[in-house]
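Appendix B. Raw example, untouched.
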Amino acid sequence: MNAAAVEHYGYSREQFLEMTVLDIRAPEDWDEVRAAIAERDNAAGRLRRHIKADGTKIEVSVYTRSLAFAGRDAVLVAAIDVTARKMVEDELRRTRESCTPSSTTCPRSSP
């Protein structure tokens, strides 16, 4: 974990060091997490739900790579918060679905 993760998630460095990956995941996701760990699954942009220290749920795109570090098995993880992007994409999808060619309430694209 790095300073950016500490700031973004709201856990102290000490808290992070005491946590497991399950601590930032919702209980309904635990079986999926355990399966991915058992398979040593290297994720490349998979969407996952994480929980920040204040209880806020966020959606992250996760990239992982198994490796050896200091003679021990380890996993390098990069998690990118895509919550805001996903909200905008969902709103755009809903807007497009509600629009019809004859609709007068749909936003018009600029030329």
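End of appendix B.
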